[in-house]
Amino acid sequence: MTxxxxxxTLGTIHLLALASPGPDFALILKIASRxxxxxxxxxAVGISLAILVHTVxxxxxxxxxxxxxxxxxxxxxxxxxxxLGWMGMGAFGVQARLKRALAARPLAExxxxxxxTSRAAINDAQVMQSEExxxxxxxxxxxxxxxxxxxxxxxxxxxxSTNLFNPKALVFFVTLFSTLITPEVSNQIxxxxxxxxxxxxxxWFAMLAMLLxxxxxxxxxxxxxxxIDYLCGAIxxxxxxxxxxxxxxx
Length: 250
Description:
Helix content is 85%, strand content 0%. By secondary structure, it is mainly alpha-helical.
């Protein structure tokens, strides 16, 4: 395999992996749909920095050494699965906390202003409010976005940790490089690989962040804020459960 062919092959496989739905995609979707564009771009940079770390560790044999140690590899996978599971539960928790807060506010106002005299009256008020609660959740997310925005630094760290702590990323790069990076590959080509893969990553995720954080797109996505949270939470939890099941059945 020629050097150019090797770079093209690695780049193509990596792009296909980037385009497939996973924790990285879910994170960019979640952040770009409601946070400032700078935060979404910072998250894209964070993911790319993590991919740079994975690439360097794989090229230098560190990742292979981790995978070769059964105990260490199990601990890495367990930590990564728990982290992704925590991220998934957090995505569901945002909606749950917001719904509780929004449901309690009008009920408290009704009790203060109208002073209902029976439990039935309070229950009737709750029933009437529940039909509008989901819409108010989405609207509230949009109205309060400027008051509770995530900083670019937080987005960077979140992108970095999401990819870095994903055991599937470690396995992907070890498998990819152990197959294609033979001992005959020169250090110059390895350096190009270490530049190419993070570069493709930042281009892909930056484009995704730019598209999803466009004002018109973001306004439309805000209407489906709760579904985006549920989708992202489901992706994180699915990856987490898959890793845990593999550990249990290994």
